[in-house]
Amino acid sequence: MSKLSVQAALADRGVDLALEVTAGCVTAVVGPNGAGKTSLLHLVAGLARPTSGSVRIADREVAGAAWVPVHQRRVALLTQRPALFPHLDVLANVAFGPRSSGATAADARKRAQAELEAVGCGELASRRPQDLSGGQAQRVAIARALATDPDVVLLDEPLAGLDVAVATEVRHALAARLRGRTSLLVTHELLDIWTIADQVAVLEGGRVVESGLAADLLARPTSTFLGRLSGTNLFTGTAVGDTVLQIAPDVNLHGLPDPDQPLTVGLAGLASVQPAAVALYLADPGGSPRNHLAAEVTGIEPRGHYVRVNLTVAGQPLAADLTGQAVAELALRPGARVQAAFKATQVRLYGR
Amino acid sequence: MIRPSLPRWLLLPVAAAVVFLAVPLVALLARVPWTRLPALLSAPAAVEAFWLSLRTCAVTTLVSLVLGLPLALLLSRGKGRWAAAGRTLSTVPMVLPPVVAGLALLIALGRREPLGGWLAAGGVDLAFTTTAVVIAQTFVAMPYLVVSVEGALRSTPDDYAIAAATLGASPTTVLRRVSLPLVAPAVASGAALAFARALGEFGATLTFAGSLQGTTRTLPLEIYLQREVDTDTALALSVVLITIAAVLVAVTARFSRGAWSRP
């Protein structure tokens, strides 16, 4: 278990980051392109030298007054490209780390085989990297990164290059293997945060603008955090059926379960719905939409061709995108009580 | 996929080029006294020249690897003015007329020159020695290895070395187990090219090392010497050089095909 603490600037890249990662926690790093996410990983890995400040891993200063080179930092780095060594077979790739840190050939091979089994790639040991599929290669890369028992695991959009179905598989492998390891995970995916992360740090313009527990941010998403997830509405609650999530006593959301991560009755779940899918009525409309919830308007912001109406539903925020005309016809203003309606087919439900 | 075809008239210059390249070789091979080949090649002067060439070229290739690989590694990382200067310096001998290269070596290391004189005073006398042959060959052949390996290093993505370092590999381990194995095909073909260039070396060797049978008279020098007095021996030795060259070309082609495909 090792704590990670970054308090460092890269003047030439306009980056000045302050971040504490609790030992054993996976922190999702979100933010727009150029926000400094990759710079953060480079600072921790030793691929960038801070112009001021310091980086500490497990109370050891690795950058700042001291300088510890990459290979002595005990930091694993996983990127979009698996970068498996093409001249070594899969087993030798995974054994490379233990070998480099002084393990005997036999011990290194044994460890490598165990790591491969742990990501479900045990039978690929004698293959060449060239003969692996994208998902297999990335899982082997995970095994290789973890075979060194790193103090910190850095992941730079490790699932970005994969097909959706393959990404789901690799995400599960990653979630299982990262549990309890101090990690930074750069991602744009809500699912990654929901499935893998314990904490979230939001980066913008080279600064950490927000950080907190993933569970808190998902339950009460702030506008900064939501802005990074392209404005998806999120609800957390408890599954009370295969397609029903209870978000407050007597308030149920109907939706379609995610095929790869269905709800489990009695356990926590997450619902997402796009603001554009939400319609507002002055009275309960009846009709086909499964979801109609009593809501209160908290704010109205014009956004060019549409208007973003912010509401609260059972204590959780909800955004609806309407035309200016609709807002005028309904005479919406903060404090107004309305009915928010959306079809169950517009709601995606995720289990743990 | 069928690619749009090339114009038919292209066959005309192509035929001319093939004839131009093939005629001298065919003519030479036609004149070789094949039946007397064993006898001609077992003459003492021929045998000595052959082994001298083989020995010096092997040493040249080795020295080129020992000195050229580090140079290629450094140049592949280099940016800016100094790297450009280093790159120019290491490629100039490739395009320098060999006789000029020999002259430059003579002026630098000759017995009556400052550096050569200083070496001679220390008991190191290079003139007309086999060492001088190796120096001349290395001077003109090493750049082929450097250029070949540097190009391969430059086109290797950084993330292999980065991955190796994050896995705990020291710079020496990264070099030994990742960077060099990744460019192994280029090292092999570069070494073959350097060997071939050294084998054909004539001008610089003659100018700097002279032509002393058994000591500095390599195959090309022997062929040049025999060309007028004993054409048959010259032709027989030429067959030997052509054979070695053909083998080296095949080796080089094999290794450039066998390059690691990127996963």
What features would you highlight for this structure?
heterodimer, A: 352 residues, alpha+beta, OB fold (Dihydrolipoamide Acetyltransferase, E2P), six-stranded mixed β-sheet, 24% helix, 35% strand, B: mainly alpha, MetI-like fold
Q: What can you tell me about this protein's structure?
A:
- The complex is a heterodimer of chains A (352) and B (263).
- With 352 residues, chain A is an alpha+beta fold.
- Chain A is built from 9 helices and 21 strands.
- Chain A is globular.
- Chain B has a domain at 44-96 and 128-257: MetI-like (MetI-like fold, Orthogonal Bundle).
- Chain B is 77% helix and 0% strand.
- Chain B has helices at residues 11-31, 37-41, 44-77, 80-95, 98-109, 114-121, 130-154, 159-166, 171-182, 184-199, 203-209, 219-229, 231-257.
- The chains are: A alpha+beta (352), B mainly alpha (263).
- At the A-B interface, strand 6, helix 2 and helix 4 of A face helix 8 and helix 9 of B.
Radius of gyration of chain A: 23 Å
Question: Considering DSSP H and I runs of 4 or more, what fraction of the residues of chain A is helical?
Answer: 10-25%
State the helicity of chain B in percent bands: over 70%
* Largest interface, C-beta within 8 A: A-B, 31 and 24 residues
- What is the level 1 CATH name of the largest domain in chain A? Alpha Beta
C-alpha end-to-end distance of chain A: 24 Å
The CATH C-level class name of the domain at 44-96 and 128-257 in chain B = Mainly Alpha
Largest sheet of chain A: 6 strands, mixed
